[in-house]
Specification:
0% strand; mainly alpha
Amino acid sequence: MMAMGALPVPDPVPTRWAGQEDAAVLGGLAQQDEAAMRELHRRYAPALYALAHRAQVIDPDRCVQDAFMAIWRHAECHSRSRFDGRTWMLILAHQSLRTG
């Protein structure tokens, strides 16, 4: 059981996407590559949980999961975006937290 206020620790094991730019990993995710999702989770779960914490959401686990699902569903849109991968994902996550 996790202590109140503690953030889950993402899987520390890098995937084959380790060292790749976020845009490349998002491209892999757009191709439904589950390893790409694991890599993005490894990189960005702490930031998304911090957003959820700052937003004082009731169920941060569900909200972060919803945010990652939104990233998964819309990954193919990143290549048409003017934002870098990190910014694009955090915007999507923020929108997901607001609607969740």
